[in-house]
């Protein structure tokens, strides 16, 4: 009798602990220790939000649902818009925009359409450990969509970049489902920038708004210098495990899984790149507060827990992200204007150096936590050079095979080479890393 009572007490205490941790966990806890972002680095985000919103409009000259202040873009600079009928379900609709004011070429991809079966097929086309890529794992369906999009638009992007004097930045942006496509497309382009006219890595940027978990942790940290993810408070998608059949396990069981075990699983997918967390609500306080933006390249504790909040779905909306991002940016500028008579606390050059150091520190942190296939900043270029040197002769002899009859790049064959190049090097490591977690 006493034993059974003791067991019941343990079970009750365990359930109470779980309920307390789940019910008191709020979105702002994810970034509580992060520093605040500066207006210089966050300035592009509201503009990028409006460009993604523009994909939803059939006629930008007569918009039906413009955000506050309008889209603030020139319809004459829209190079191309592609609808569902043109993508045949292989990619969400997108827009290519030559932004001559900001000297940028932007590929903006819309988010999940709740009434389109093709979008669900794209999102659900993945199983744990299904797709290996670039020394890690990525979402299979989103990678296929990124390759298809490059096959369709790489020549257009290359032409625009060369026509503008090879001086513009190349921006890939997406929301929700489109964010995963944009992030993986960016990874491919960074590895094969010569196919887009030789655009340097420093001129490539990706903005993933309300990002899907689409790549393993080593890749999420590795590409944090080019991929920027933006999360509004309690948004559920960056915290939702993929494949989606694990969502209930994320809600009920992830509380009990040790952090180290999660980090050691090379197949686990994460939101990509550097994180910008827009925080506007606090625990046990009603209403919205003036938003602040916190930023970091987290390794452990990277949006791991779904927040049980009535705002978990509304915070995912692109309209809300645009509004709160605009408010946050205005607040940052106001703070700077208040101290215009004195030197800024963080000067621009100093902040750029800090961002570079944060990336190096994150890479080293991933190595110290034994994240599978993580490498330091010094090791990564060496590995790439060794791999490229060993394949240089084969690459020269196979250039023609990656071109179609019209001279266009066949991205399926280009990416397949990256599969082979990385998989042969890491296949045995993956087997060794996965085995203990089975």
Automatic annotation (TrEMBL):
Skewed-composition ranges (Polar residues): 397-408
Residues of the Fungal lipase-type domain: 106-242
GO molecular function: hydrolase activity
Keyword Cell membrane: no
Top-level lineage group: Eukaryota
One Pfam family, short name: Lipase_3
InterPro entries (UniProt xref): AB_hydrolase_fold (IPR029058), Fungal_lipase-type (IPR002921), Mono/diacylglycerol_lipase_N (IPR005592)
GO biological process: lipid catabolic process
Domain Mono-/di-acylglycerol lipase N-terminal: 7-71
Stretches the record annotates as Disordered: 372-412
Keywords: Hydrolase
PANTHER family reported for this sequence: ALPHA/BETA-HYDROLASES SUPERFAMILY PROTEIN, ALPHA_BETA-HYDROLASES SUPERFAMILY PROTEIN
Protein name: Calmodulin-binding heat-shock protein
């Amino acid at each position: 009798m006493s034993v059974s009572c003791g067991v019941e007490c343990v079970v009750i205490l365990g359930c109470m602990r779980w309920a307390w941790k789940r019910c008191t966990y709020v979105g702002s806890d994810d970034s509580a220790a992060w520093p605040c972002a500066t207006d210089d680095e966050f300035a592009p985000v509201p503009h990028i939000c409006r460009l993604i919103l523009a994909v939803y409009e059939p006629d930008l000259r007569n918009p039906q649902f413009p955000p506050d202040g309008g889209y603030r873009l020139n319809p004459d600079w829209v190079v191309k818009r592609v609808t569902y009928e043109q993508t045949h379900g292989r990619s969400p609709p997108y827009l290519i925009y030559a932004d001559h004011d900001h000297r940028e070429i932007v590929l903006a991809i819309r988010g999940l359409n709740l009434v389109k079966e093709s979008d669900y097929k794209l999102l659900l086309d993945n199983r744990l450990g299904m797709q290996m890529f670039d020394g890690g794992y990525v979402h299979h369906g989103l990678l296929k969509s990124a390759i298809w999009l490059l096959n369709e638009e790489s020549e257009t992007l290359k032409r625009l970049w060369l026509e503008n004097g090879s001086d513009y930045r190349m921006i890939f942006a997406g929301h929700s489902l489109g964010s995963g496509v944009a992030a993986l497309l960016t990874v491919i382009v960074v590895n094969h920038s010569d196919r887009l006219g030789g655009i340097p890595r420093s001129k490539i940027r990706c903005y993933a708004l309300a990002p899907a978990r689409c790549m393993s942790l080593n890749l999420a940290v590795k590409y944090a210098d080019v991929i920027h993810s933006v999360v509004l408070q309690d948004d559920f998608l960056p915290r939702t495990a993929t494949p989606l059949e694990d969502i209930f396990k994320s809600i009920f069981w992830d509380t009990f899984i040790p952090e180290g075990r999660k980090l050691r699983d090379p197949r686990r997918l994460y939101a990509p790149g550097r994180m910008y967390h827009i925080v506007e609500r606090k625990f046990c306080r009603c209403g919205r507060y003036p938003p602040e933006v916190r930023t970091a390249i987290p390794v452990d504790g990277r949006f791991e827990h779904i927040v049980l909040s009535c705002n978990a779905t509304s915070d995912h909306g692109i309209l809300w992200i645009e509004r709160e991002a605009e408010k946050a940016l205005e607040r940052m500028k106001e703070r700077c204007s208040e101290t215009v008579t004195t030197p800024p606390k963080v000067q621009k050059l100093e902040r750029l150096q800090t961002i570079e150091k944060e990336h190096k520190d994150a890479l080293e942190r991933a190595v110290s936590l034994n994240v599978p296939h993580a490498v330091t900043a010094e090791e990564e270029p060496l590995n790439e050079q060794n791999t490229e040197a060993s394949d240089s002769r084969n690459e020269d002899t196979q250039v023609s095979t990656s071109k179609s009859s019209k001279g266009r790049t066949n991205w399926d064959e280009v990416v397949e080479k990256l599969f082979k190049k990385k998989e042969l090097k890491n296949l045995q490591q993956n087997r060794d890393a996965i085995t203990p977690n089975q």
